[in-house]
Amino acid sequence: xxxxxxxxxxxxxxxxxxxxxxxxxxxxxxxxxxxxxxxxxxxxxxxxxxxxxxxxxxxxxxxxxxxxxxxxxxxxxxxxxxxxxxxxxxxxxxxxxxxxxxxxxxxxxxxxxxxxxxxxxxxxxxxxxxxxxxxxxxxxxxxxxxxxxxxxxxxxxxxxxxxxxxxxxxxxxxxxxxxxxxxxxxxxxxxxxxxxxxxxxxxxxxxxxxxxxxxxxxxxxxxxxxxxxxxxxxxxxxxxxxxxxxxxxxxxxxxxxxxxxxxxxxxxxxxxxxxxxxxxxxxxxxxxxxxxxxxxxxxxxxxxxxxxxxxxxxxxxxxxxxxxxxxxxxxxxxxxxxxxxxxxxxxxxxxxxxxxxxxxxxxxxxxxxxxxxxxxxxxxxxxxxxxxxxxxxxxxxxxxxxxxxxxxxxxxxxxxxxxxxxxxxxxxxxxxxxxxxxxxxxxxxxxxxxxxxxxxxxxxxxxxxxxxxxxxxxxxxxxxxxxxxxxxxxxxxxxxxxxxxxxxxxxxxxxxxxxxxxxxxxxxxxxxxxxxxxxxxxxxxxxxxxxxxxxxxxxxxxxxxxxxxxxxxxxxxxxxxxxxxxxxxxxxxxxxxxxxxxxxxxxxxxxxxxxxxxxxxxxxxxxxxxxxxxxxxxxxxxxxxxxxxxxxxxxxxxxxxxxxxxxxxxxxxxxxxxxxxxxxxxxxxxxxxxxxxxxxxxxxxxxxxxxxxxxxxxxxxxxxxxxxxxxxxxxxxxxxxxxxxxxxxxxxxxxxxxxxxxxxxxxxxxxxxxxxxxxxxxxxxxxxxxxxxxxxxxxxxxxxxxxxxxxxxxxxxxxxxxxxxxxxxxxxxxxxxxxxxxxxxxxxxxxxxxxxxxxxxxxxxxxxxxxxxxxxxxxxxxxxxxxxxxxxxxxxxxxxxxxxxxxxxxxxxxxxxxxxxxxxxxxxxxxxxxxxxxxxxxxxxxxxxxxxxxxxxxxxxxxxxxxxxxxxxxxxxxxxxxxxxxxxxxxxxxxxxxx
Length: 995
Fold this sequence. Notes:
- The protein is of the alpha/beta class.
- It contains 32 helices and 18 strands.
- The protein is globular and about 110 Å long.
- The two termini are 23 Å apart.
């Protein structure tokens, strides 16, 4: 995959995720603006409509919208979308368009909330997402995926960059048709009176929804480029500016026209600004974007006033003025604010305005008309609206049965008070409200109604009085307490006599008479059955504690009263705070450990580069036996130190969950052979026999991580050789395939070494632990090998264990999951020896593998400069040194401009003045294409990715391995020369320009 295509694909997928997050924003917004008795219904609609939209768009919606055009009216190909390309770019585009379809559908959900029957809403979702949206989308955006306008509107020159009309107005005008056919909610409009405002259940959640939508709009508009290019920052900034001035415009409108600043209006102003700028965000200037957002807010406010006051259209969330009317303005604004260079060739500003006006009119006629027709037809078979009783009850209960024991209990009580003697409360004996319901039902079922009813009500009152929850009953007019249960009196510190002279305002410091009156107004008006909120209570001694309140109205002695059930949430908040603090401390500790290990690795590896490198040079030139022995001792101890660092890093990654294992097909025989070959040198040095055999038939391939399995076996065989002075070490491999069980590969490492006592075996698998101090002194080691092996075996789905006899030897047995078998051919027969230990001679190296290669070495350490320069020059290379990243940048740039670029750049990533990351990025930004190899002492997995992300072609760590470094440089140099040769063989290349 080309780099630009990969970048565009990643950008488009990120934008897809951002636009999909708008579904969460719509869910918060619409459920928060709905009354709590309908909020669950609204949230479920948001989930279901996206599922419907996604399924239909995949099956045929994408085809209707972006398939081969039939005279500019409808797509005719790509039904049941599929993608056979290697890059899967078409899939990325499809996903991006899918979430657009979901957004268009969700706009209608909030407008029709609280009264449309759920089953009918499913039909509405299918009509909008499967028919209305994709067909109009074809008219305006047909051919978008191929870069050729095929829709009849787009061929006329209609411009709607990210969908002010295509997405937002389509959803809004379809919602308008549904709202008109539904009619307003009960009690919303009364003749001769101003519209009754139904307050949302959770305005803070509405604000959260707006912020989520705002963030999602970055992907909505920024992703519509279908590429990560220079337009994106300006598009996103235009989006932000329009939203800001939309919110300010709504605020100014509220300050001028209303005594109270309505929260919903300000939030909708922000959304109106976002909708308005969506059509032109890619072509207008920053001031124009601010103006478009400001006017969009005014358009939204004026439309809201007309819809409510003049036409009495009940739109629960304001979707029609926000998405429909602001969308119209945003589409027309393209002709007013965009430069004429953005129009079709020869198109004037007035001509463009005409085309834009045609587009919004066609959108209204198509979306409104088709939705009206489909709803009319469907309503002949399915009821469009819930019954008045269901609407008063709330759709949470009526449509989904989402209720509570306490809610049902209070409802039963109310029906009994109204004279329905047959009503009974459902009782769940495992809840407090259910216990109360059981008692209440017993009262109603009593044969001696008069006498037993009084007795049972008394018992019922005692249960309430002893409840751990605080229960308050206070007069709705004077607000004075009528009754407060024992739990509340104990917590507050007041007597009942003292409380009779107080009101809730005396114990709720956060509320004033005005705020409390506004809060309970829906209860007194009958528009809400209950309200729930959190606040604080103040005790008699002045201390305060947090509470959760459930408040509703009832009738007591012919008077209206408020009944409040209070839950003290002090402990809950304390536990939440403690959990949050504990998590933050754990994350901080993990970050500190990771930083320490990374720094430790870097600081040790940097000097070890010079130590081991110059030691290798000494070994190459030493002739005296004692000098050779001394140099080999230095090398062995240096390599031991590096192995220790790698072991610690491996253990850290395993413990932090950052070590990822792969599942690939690999050959057990090849892995065992590699291990035996690698470890044979150690075995021969101690005059030990190293053998490997297979006890049973083993599949040719298994599914596991070959690198980690090899690491485990090297650890175990190395341990066995280290603790064995005479005899042999044997690797025995078996195939375990129990009936009905998971097939596994078992390996045993058997030695004739010193062995350990049985009571010391368990501690061997703990970090930094060996059998005893004498073993540490006699054989060395950190004690990490078995710990890491155990963790790796568990990651590979297996187990590890050890048996040992002191003085006779040990057997370590491990099993790993074999995964699904794709090749069941057998590798060897039972008990057949697989590998015998052999000593392999080193291959003869080429004398000058880098002959003629020009290398720029960017390294600030003098020792490392001398060492690496010496190694490269000895291999035949021409080496130029740079002490820091800035010098390297200047030298590479100058050489490239002179027509003599370096074949390879070796870039240390941590240097003064300008580090390797910044130098590499600047070279790549300037168009430098020659290989750059990162040379760093940072050896964590994310360090490699960090270097590659900066623009490096390859990565190697310090201390350097001479052979690996030379081979890596030679490989990249060969690729450069091959590329140059191919360019000069190509007769179409202009050879007068340096390549």
